[in-house]
Amino acid sequence: MDNGTDSMLDMYLFETNSLMEQLDELLIEAEKVEEFSTDDVNEIFRIMHTIKGSSAMMEFTSLNQIAHHIEDLFFYIRENGMDAIAPELKKTLFNLMFKATDMLRSEIEKVENNEPLTENIDNIIGEINSFLNKISNPSDAADSPADTQQDSPSVEELNMELAHCPDDNAPFFIKVLFEEGCGMENLRAFMLVNALQDLALDFHFYPDDVENNSDSSQSIIDNGFFLTLEKEENIEKVVNVITGTSHIHSYEVIENARLKRSGKDPDEQADISAQAAVPISTDDTPVKAASIDNKNIEVPAKQTAAPAANAARLHAGPVKQSLISVNLSKLDALVAIVGEIVITESMVTSSPDIQGLKLDNFMKSSRQLGKLTKELQDIAMSLRMVPVSGVFQKMNRIVRDMKQKLNKDVRLTIIGEDTELDKSIVDGISDPIMHIVRNSMDHGVENTSEERIAAGKDPQAEIILSAAHTGSEVIIKVEDDGYGMDTEQILAKAANNGLLIKPESEYTKKEILGLLLLPGFSTNEEVTEYSGRGVGMDVVKRNVEAVGGTVSISSELGQGSCTTLKIPLTMAIVDGMEIAVGQSIFTVPIANIRQSFKVSNEDVVYDAEGNEIVKCMDEFYPIIRVHQLYNVETDVTSIEDGILIWVEASDTSYCLFVDELLGEQQVVVKPLPTYLNSFNIKNSGISGCTILGNGNISIILDILSLYEMTQY
Amino acid sequence: MSEDTKIIMDEDIEKKLEAEVEKERFLTFHSADLTFAANTKYVIEIITNHAITTLPMVPEYIKGIINLRGQIIPIVDIRLRLGKPPIDMENNDTTCIIVLDIDSISVGILVDSVSQVVDSELSKISPVPVNNQHELVNGMISLDVNNVVLLLDCQQLVDTQKMM
User: Fold this and answer.
1) In this structure, are A53 and A188 located in the same domain?
2) What CATH number corresponds to the domain at position A429?
3) pLDDT digits (tens, 9 = 90+) for A336-358
């Protein structure tokens, strides 16, 4: 049973989160044109309806309530069109929507973290209602809570009409829908009535001629079968009977809003206005308020996905039917096994026992096996890959909010959002990117457009968020065209904070910018809402390093700055060239290799410091001897005995001197043990290791950091 | 792999029958001329004859990494870690690697030889004398046979920040 609710909760979170993402995207897009199209309104209505329904099912009252009120609001907009809203109110609408979605999001987060939900949501609901009030009665702009309460039932009434509630003065309706195509709806309804009569309750039902009028079937199919009740306490009993009856698709308890409108419960009204007037009330009262507000509880019977399915049927939107959600740990296990299979496959096919034998059939089948294994591997790898667009879209929202708060004119340009990364990495880099974007917004970009014009720049600042694949890495860049960083100021600040470890004059520009990534460094003098708390870039660095990536900053004073995140594709399978140096075996990613060649002593020239340089394709490249760099004992020290590999990574290019090439192999990258992280091994040209077919370990070289290491 | 694994359990069974005093179980091993004891709750297995792949750019006491059934485990030479001379690998067939799992950090330690598993009451563990502080040692256990073993501080072993 526990498992059942768990997977239901998972489903709920998955569904709700993806709906929220859709909603966010939609809001951002809509705000750009300051208008909701009819499609947008329908879409929001649909999303809210789904969230409302599934939240009610999961008994998340606050989510249900907020979604319910937004639904009401958009119901009104849908009925009256966007034109009914005064232009000056549109901005308020957008702000209100963003606020409400934030509230929903924080509630969902609480559900995820297993924290209690906010009980008092009168604040946001009051705001939504008063806004609805404003747009529905433009003449009466007063937004007192009492008005709100009196006005909102009009929407309830509309809802009731939508639900085809019959005329009855009973305070409660129950709408029952039978399963599609179950047949003889009128008799099924009559059976339900019979079962209820056994309880000796005071109730009526519509259509009331189900027993002898078979035409009533059609009315039941179209509008549903209605039961009306006088007393609230009986609802539960009736619901029990309904859930115990077969062929019932869903049912809905509806409070008679018309009755409420007539002011039948003055006490209740007073209570609500009192509640709304005191938004921050004590712990016990909000529960009451919430229960009063519970006008519309939709509880699908048996079928959990019923509300979603209903909504999807009503509004044909983009429904992702072809997606299934899978537990991440299962995927991990799959990827691990596939990795082992790849290794085992090469162990079998290169087994020493069959070396030198001529086995035609074996070779044929092993080639086939190899091909299939590779396909399996590719699929297994792609399972975990998701585009970064989710993270990037979030930045839209942050830029939008900060733009308003800081009153800066900034446009966010997103490039390469469909670049795919491992799911866990995408989750891991969301916070760092957000931090960097905030930094750029807050103190990267000029405060006023006058300042920008004076500096000869476009008055609208630009932040470019880009992602791109380069071989085994994804490079994510956040660029702005703002102030740029003042190295002297950084140096002074670092000196102030006691972060310098050598005389100021010895710092290179790159090192100075690197100081920004140290803990306890923040260039902004004042603490603002968004940045400048002294925790910042060091947290970014830590988070990015946690997923195996690196952070670097480059900047030109007056022209802007650029933060670059280099993120590896974890567990990526790399095509590698195995090379031998002494007893050690290294792997160089094929993607980095341009060429390998033998040279004679005459081809090598020396620079002023005695470093070896070789000429390939009319350009000169430095030679790095791996055995010298890593202190590996080897007999091959003469440049003529070994072989040169011309490698290239982003903008660095050089030649590696190794003993010999062993051959090409596809390898599964394994990270080095965490224990070794503190030895700064990531910056010594080693990106990981891999297990070879014979069980030996080969060390994978990182061409870029290997070169950087030799430069110090 | 199973023939590589020595399991020392002679004493375990009889000790289990004893009344439950506050006891912990320790694996004792030799390194240089010292006898250490490691809490068995950290010990995963003992392996011999394992090919170690050396790593460049690490301190000398990191002997390298091994492939233990697909898991990559770093190997620390206890002798070198404590600043003792390295053992003569050629003429030694008792050296082995004790694989430890310390707060889910796996690390193997290279030791001269493994001796036995002992039970010791917690009260018998005495602190190291203040003026005799020793790296990687956080206590001393006196065994009945007139010898004292040093309690290996596993936490300090993986606490790489302190080593820097």
Assistant:
1) no
2) 3.30.565.10
3) 788 778 777 877 887 778 878 88
Query: B1 in contact with A at a CB cutoff of 8 Å?
Result: no
Residue A22 and residue A447: Cα distance in Å, rounded?
A: 32
B74 lies within 8 A of chain A by CB: yes
- The model's pLDDT over A547-570, given as tens digits with 9 standing for 90+, comes to 767 788 888 888 888 888 888 765
Residue A403 lies in a domain: yes
Is residue A6 situated within a structural domain? yes
Provide the pLDDT for residue A141: 42
Min CA distance, A466 vs chain B (Å)?
A: 34
Cβ-in-10-Å burial (0-12, 13-18, 19+) of A410 comes to buried
Q: What's the domain count of chain A? A: 5
- Is pLDDT at B159 greater than 80 in this prediction? no
**Is A509 domain-assigned?**
yes
Domain that holds residue A152: 2-157
Verify whether the Cβ–Cβ distance B56 to A632 is below 8 Å: yes
CA separation, residue A650 to residues A419, A689, B44 (Å): 18, 21, 43
Question: How high is the pLDDT of residue B20?
Answer: 57
- pLDDT tier, A368 (very low <50, low <70, confident <90, very high otherwise): very high
User: What SS3 state is found at A399?
Assistant: helix
The position carrying tokens 């394709």 is A617
- Grouping H, G, I as helix, E, B as strand and the rest as coil, residue A309 is helix
Which tokens in the block code for residue A545? 């390093």
Asked if the Cβ–Cβ distance from B59 to A672 is below 8 Å, we say no
Residue where a domain terminates, one of A568, A591, A609: A568
B7 near A CB under 8 A: no
Domains and CATH numbers, chain B: 2-163 (2.40.50.180)
Phi, psi for residue B135 in degrees, rounded to 5? -60, 145
State the ipTM, two decimals.
0.76
Which of A675, A683, A694, A702 is most worth mutating to test chain B (most B CB atoms within 10 A of its CB)?
A675
**A152 contacts A132 by C-beta, under 8 angstroms:** yes
Q: How far apart are CA B57 and CA B52, in angstroms?
A: 16
pLDDT, tens only, B96-139: 899 998 887 889 998 888 888 888 877 778 877 777 777 778 88
Same domain for A361 and A412, yes or no, is: no
Q: What is the CATH number of the domain that holds A127?
A: 1.20.120.160
In chain B, residues with a C-beta closer than 8 Å to the C-beta of A668 are none
CATH of the domain at A248: 3.30.70.1110
Please give, rounded to a whole number of angstroms, the shortest distance from the CA of A337 to a CA of chain B: 11
Residues A679, B106: C-beta atoms closer than 8 Å: no
Last residue in a domain, options A537, A568, A599: A568
